[in-house]
Amino acid sequence: MTLPDCGPDLGPLHAYPTADGSFSLQSERFGEAFHNSAGARNEAIAKFAVPAQLERFRNGTPLRVLDVCVGLGYNSAAVLEALPSPAPELMWWGLELDRRPLELALAQPEFRSSWSPSVLQILEQMRDHGGWHHNRSSGELLWGDARRMLQEIPGDQCFDLILQDAFSPQRCPELWTEEFLADLAGRLAAGGRLLTYSRSAAVRASLRRNGLTLLSLLPAPGERPGWSSGTMAVRPGPPIPVAGPGWRALLAMEEEHLHTRAAVPFRDPSSADDSAVILRRRSLEQASCNLEATNAWQRRWRQDATS
Ligand SMILES: C[S@@+](CC[C@H](N)C(=O)[O-])C[C@H]1O[C@@H](n2cnc3c(N)ncnc32)[C@H](O)[C@@H]1O
Prior knowledge:
This protein is an alpha/beta fold.
């Protein structure tokens, strides 16, 4: 099924079922699927809800969440479903450019039946009213470019959890730049966690330069195992074990990856450049840097790096 274009910017979306049977989309503008081979729902649970360890918020500690690239809403829905009981006070913000993914998802009976009535009601309120306000739970979805919309959230608002799920750095570099990641990292509370499916050296190096501790995510059920399935970046705070539900320490090969040309960051000094400008700027910086070529690193770790 192909869904109509809604303007010059956002391009057509194509619907497809993922490996776990859950509904997802492919974007023609970004040339990329919204979810990976594991399936949309599996990925949201394994890479976002599980490593968030939401039971930490059992004892009346409020939970502040930022969902970057809400899309169909899987990641936030998985987090909402996994909240401990009694649920903590919740303050949620979402950033998203395109209204269609959430509208299309909520029109799918299979998608709707994946969630409990209370989570479904919240997704509907995001779609219809741009948020919700219940007794101890509130949310605001800010429509527009995430770089700009993040600035609409009061500067002193910190997050315990940031779900960073933009399209890949090569397709959507504007949301993986040194500057945008610094803005996100700067919003993490002590002990706060930024979760992403990305294992990109450029992204990891930017997060580390911003004072975060890096951990590597384990594959979701059904996902083809590779050398890493994503990144959890943690603002120093209460001690966190090097291995936990859904994560482990970085391997030596992952540490070395951070010293190759792949680790040259995406830069967007004005926070307004388009992807072509950002990619060109990075290529020039890579060509003139004296970091090790990434294919030399790949050859050294051939067995692991190609899996
Ligand atoms: C990989 S999908 C996100 C999937 C989503 N997290 C989910 O659970 O369904 C990436 C999303 O980023 C959005 N997007 C792309 N560029 C953006 C931008 N500059 N600002 C905000 N959202 C953007 C797209 O519209 C798309 O919904």
